[in-house]
Structures are given as C-alpha cells and as structure tokens.
C-alpha cells in the first residue's frame, strides 16, 4: 500500500479523509480492497472514521489527492472546494464530495 503525503488528511481525533481516486487506484493498492485499506488505516494510524470522497482536481498529476480539495480546519470542521460553474471540469466531482461531507455531518446529529 502506497500512502504518500497528500493522500490523506487527519484531524488528530480519529477521523481521516481521503479520496477513492487515490487510495483505490491500482497504481497504489493493486491487491487491496477498500475494506483492507480501511483496516490498515485503522490499525496503523488509529483511524476510527474514514471519510471517502470521490476524487480531487483533474489534472493534478497525483490522481486527485485530498490535500488539494479538502482539509481539516480543526477536529470537527473541514474546508472543501466547490464551484458553481457547471462547465468547470471539476464541478461534478466537487459536488459529489460536498454531498458526502454533508451526509457525514447529518449522521452526527
């Protein structure tokens, strides 16, 4: 499993954010399932909650790393990138990411 800088972001309290486009990419984890990756992140990094966003920015050269689109501001707040320009090449993926994050917030309430 390849876990380079930029592929995850943690809040220091057991929550981790990543993108499917990075950690599920065959060039990093060719023989691991999503569950196996989650088990490793839990075991080695202490991740209790893993939030899987769909992807990052197109053309970033790193398969959509998380640090380009979403970051923890503190233990309970994230900042994420969106665009209202529907013709922007990243509009759809950023919107999906926002929906996932909004869903995570709803689950806590």
Structure characterization notes:
This protein is α+β, with helices and mostly antiparallel strands and 109 residues long. It has three helices and five strands, in the order E-E-H-H-E-E-E-H. The strands form two sheets. The protein has a three-stranded mixed sheet with strand order 1-2-3, with helices on both faces. Strands 4-5 form a two-stranded antiparallel sheet. It is globular and about 40 Å long. The termini are far apart.
Taking the sheet with the most strands, its summary is: 3 strands, mixed
- State mean pLDDT (0 to 100 scale): 91
The computed structural class is: alpha+beta
Write down the secondary-structure element order: EEHHEEEH
How much beta, percentage-wise? Answer: 15-25%
Keywords:
5 strands, 3-stranded mixed beta sheet
Summarize the structure in short:
With 109 residues, the chain is α+β, with helices and mostly antiparallel strands. The protein is 31% helix and 20% strand. The protein has 3 helices and 5 strands; from the N terminus they run ββααβββα.
